[in-house]
């Protein structure tokens, strides 16, 4: 197949998939915003940006839906999410194909992202019967004290291009069972997948039967649309995924009106390979974490610290893996590394590699792989003598900086010596090293793994990080509490009125 035939096929494939998923053609044709496929560089669609007035209308409709939805029993709300999960199961292949066309992920990763949506729906259905509060000990006789959890309101969701559907589902599946409504601003680079997900959700709503209008909506656009969502007084929570710069803009705006911020921002993730590490295991873990999704995950492995005693044994094997990995059309079997999202992504990669060379780094790979107007690049391996400034900044591309270490405490200190604090890992068979790494003196990240890479989290654990990563937590554990408001209740079932702390006030 020639490059030109691939370019022709991308738009046709997208149109066919959108049709099967039930997306109204007028939503993705004739609009002001072109949608390019990173696979081919071709314009696949022309979507319509929402005006500020349309964003406000969507929020008002969502607020009205919330006022009704909060009265629906939580297990019944879970039934809607169950039905949505069934729609996702039926549409998994098509939605996965659209993720590949729009975000450039290889097929297995795209299907894995849709499976992640299915998994969080299953999780949320079970959660709908477990939104429990505590009964608390009280010092007053004939009193009971407890906490209850109530729906919060409209949840604004701002998602990034690299996980165009899964991150929305982490938030929305929990929000819906908690009794909230959602307004979603997808990345302007990946709006088609959002329209497809909304169409599938509407199918589930039709089967459910009595879903209030406006419970879920999509607003497409750039910064102006995001700001309208962030600033609206009827949006008590905004979950925003993206760059640290975006978080710095969003966080203060929400704080100004005392709204909640759930921020999932930058990552500059590291792995440590200790002397006792299983090098076969480490090689597989490093390869996926560093090269998967063309280095465009927030949990991508970007820094690797290898003990000096195994460095010479490990590095040639890693270079061989980098040299043999197939870079190309993510729809083709055997491809492991697809395209960068756009020209800007490629330019930032080349700038980082130039800066690394200027800092004394030895670069292997990183060159462009010519495929029409799209931007493919071979993953780059950069041997560094120290953690220079370029290493400390996140570059959203397949670049792995490799450094030697001698003492584990030094390696942990270097790992932590970056502004970001999302994910981390160590490869070791020494129990003391593993326990130290996950202790308070170890990794300062929100995710700390042993003998797996930093990338590829499951939905059962709360996902998020510290420092410039933003501090937010999504998906499993007790993350549902972010989408609800807590009330402390004290009930007096006696005939006297004892006051706490022994206070008396007799009238």
TrEMBL record:
The active site is at residue 264. One of its GO terms (molecular function) is aldehyde dehydrogenase (NAD+) activity. Residues 33-486 form the Aldehyde dehydrogenase domain. Coiled coil: none annotated. Gene3D superfamilies: Aldehyde Dehydrogenase, Chain A, domain 1 (3.40.605.10), Aldehyde Dehydrogenase, Chain A, domain 2 (3.40.309.10). This is aldehyde dehydrogenase (NAD(+)). Belongs to the aldehyde dehydrogenase family. Its EC number is 1.2.1.3. Pfam families: Aldedh. SUPFAM superfamilies: ALDH-like. Homotetramer. It comes from the Bacteria. Keywords: NAD, Oxidoreductase.
């Amino acid at each position: 197949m020639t490059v030109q035939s691939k370019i022709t096929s991308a738009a046709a494939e997208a149109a066919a998939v959108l049709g099967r998923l039930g997306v109204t053609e007028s939503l993705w044709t004739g609009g002001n915003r072109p949608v390019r496929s990173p696979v081919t560089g071709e314009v696949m669609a022309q979507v319509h940006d929402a005006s500020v007035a349309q964003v406000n209308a969507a929020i008002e409709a969502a607020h009205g839906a919330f006022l009704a939805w909060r009265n629906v029993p939580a297990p019944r709300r879970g039934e809607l999410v169950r039905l949505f999960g069934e729609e996702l199961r039926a549409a998994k292949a098509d939605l996965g194909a659209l993720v590949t066309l729009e975000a450039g992920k290889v097929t297995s990763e795209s299907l894995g992202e849709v499976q992640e949506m299915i998994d969080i729906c299953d999780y949320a259905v079970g959660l709908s019967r477990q939104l429990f509060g505590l009964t608390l000990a009280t010092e007053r006789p004939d009193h009971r004290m407890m906490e209850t959890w109530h729906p919060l309101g409209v949840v604004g969701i701002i998602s990034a291009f690299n996980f165009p559907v899964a991150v929305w589902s982490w938030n929305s599946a929990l929000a819906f069972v908690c009794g909230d409504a959602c307004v979603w601003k997808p990345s302007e680079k990946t709006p088609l997948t959002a329209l497809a997900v909304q169409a599938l959700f509407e199918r589930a709503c039709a089967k459910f039967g009595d879903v209030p209008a406006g419970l879920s909506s999509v607003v497409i656009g750039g910064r102006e649309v995001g700001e309208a969502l962030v600033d609206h007084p009827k949006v008590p929570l905004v979950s925003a995924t993206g760059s640290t710069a975006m978080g710095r803009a969003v966080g203060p705006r929400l704080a100004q009106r005392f709204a909640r911020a759930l921020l999932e921002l930058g990552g500059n993730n590291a792995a440590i390979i200790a002397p006792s590490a299983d090098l076969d295991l480490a090689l597989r873990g490093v390869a996926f974490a560093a090269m998967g999704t063309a280095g465009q995950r927030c949990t991508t492995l970007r820094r690797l610290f290898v003990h000096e005693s195994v460095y010479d044994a490990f590095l040639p094997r890693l270079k061989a893996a980098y040299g043999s990995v197939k870079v190309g059309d993510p729809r083709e079997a055997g491809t492991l590394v697809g395209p960068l999202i756009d020209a800007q992504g490629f330019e930032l990669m080349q700038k980082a590699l130039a800066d690394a060379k200027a800092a004394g780094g030895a670069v292997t790979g990183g060159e462009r792989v010519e495929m029409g107007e799209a931007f493919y690049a071979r993953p780059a391996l950069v041997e560094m003598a120290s953690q220079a400034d370029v290493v400390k900044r996140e570059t959203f591309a397949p670049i792995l900086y490799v450094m030697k270490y001698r003492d584990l405490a030094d390696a942990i200190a270097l790992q932590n010596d970056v502004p970001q604090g999302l994910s981390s890992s160590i490869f070791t068979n020494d129990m003391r090293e593993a326990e130290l790494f996950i202790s308070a003196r170890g990794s300062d990240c929100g995710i700390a793994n042993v003998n797996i890479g930093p990338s590829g989290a499951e939905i059962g654990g709360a996902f998020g990080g510290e420092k410039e990563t933003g501090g937010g937590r999504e998906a499993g554990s007790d993350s549902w509490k972010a989408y609800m408001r807590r009330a402390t209740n004290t009930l007096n079932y006696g005939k006297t009125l004892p006051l706490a702390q022994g206070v008396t006030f007799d009238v």
